[in-house]
Structure to design on (283 residues):
């Protein structure tokens, strides 16, 4: 039986391979079409899971909250797929790790949680790392880089909403209904750039959806086995996988700005996770 950290490292590996396959599939298809088929296949699988467990596919209460979260995740899926198809994999992954920083901001501004100066300092340091990666005063801002940040922002908003939805509904229901409800957003985006996949391209799309499902399974096992605070440092193995796969598959090497900014983002995010765990234990 694998330990929590081992499950999490497995999840980081599968999500990185999935992101690399998105780039491969996007060489012949627009990223919007790729994300549509990937989410459609995943939504279909989740509907089957919900029905097998006797859970309603659509929520019977708090539909508005579910729809809002699905909107955030739909945007996150589209922007993430666009990011990994247009900028180096390591750079996109580094910028996406601003997600826990956005979670702190939303927890303070929307949920009204009290955030101490230490965590605010860590957030500021992490966003400084993002600015180092972006280098707005030195190079033209890339749309793909901004898409990665938007993916992190909307994913953070979605994560904050999970806290309330999961109080009344089991995790599989929250996840499954979210995939079903967000499906129209990638569909609308895909219709603007529609190209029918060929048979070989459809194989790539199935592989992407399968890896996405495997990632969710590994994450569920990891967080069921180990406290989130203890897993936080292992999440950043995704940066290592992104650098290795980016170099092996696409000949990409992270530049010094991405490495330096990534170190700041990773350090601040790990500190925030450990600090929140310490405060939770104290209370």
């Amino acid at each position: 039986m694998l330990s929590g950290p081992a499950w999490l490292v497995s999840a980081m590996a599968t999500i990185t391979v999935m992101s690399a396959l998105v780039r491969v599939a996007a060489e012949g298809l627009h990223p919007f079409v790729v994300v549509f088929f990937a989410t459609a296949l995943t939504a279909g699988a989740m509907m089957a899971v919900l029905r097998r467990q006797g859970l309603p596919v659509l929520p019977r209460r708090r539909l508005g909250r579910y729809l809002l979260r699905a909107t955030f995740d739909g945007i996150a899926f589209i922007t993430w797929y666009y990011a990994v198809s247009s900028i180096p994999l390591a750079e996109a992954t580094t910028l996406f790790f601003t997600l826990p920083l956005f979670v702190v901001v939303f927890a303070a501004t929307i949920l009204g949680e009290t955030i101490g100066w230490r965590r605010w300092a860590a957030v500021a340091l992490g966003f400084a790392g993002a600015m180092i990666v972006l280098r707005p005063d030195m190079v033209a801002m890339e749309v793909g880089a901004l898409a990665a940040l938007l993916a992190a922002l909307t994913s953070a908003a979605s994560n904050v909403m999970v806290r309330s939805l999961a109080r009344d509904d089991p995790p599989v229901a929250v996840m499954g209904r979210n995939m079903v409800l967000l499906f129209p957003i990638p569909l609308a985006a895909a219709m603007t750039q529609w190209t029918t996949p060929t048979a070989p391209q459809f194989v790539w799309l199935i592989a992407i959806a399968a890896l996405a499902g495997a990632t969710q399974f590994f994450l569920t096992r990891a967080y069921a086995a180990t406290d989130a605070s203890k897993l936080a440092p292992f999440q950043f193995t995704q940066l290592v996988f992104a650098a290795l796969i980016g170099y092996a598959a696409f000949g990409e090497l992270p530049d010094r700005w991405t490495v330096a900014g990534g170190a700041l983002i990773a350090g601040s995010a790990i500190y925030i996770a450990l600090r929140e765990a310490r405060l939770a234990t104290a209370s």
Observations:
- The CA atoms of residues 100 and 115 lie 13 Å apart.
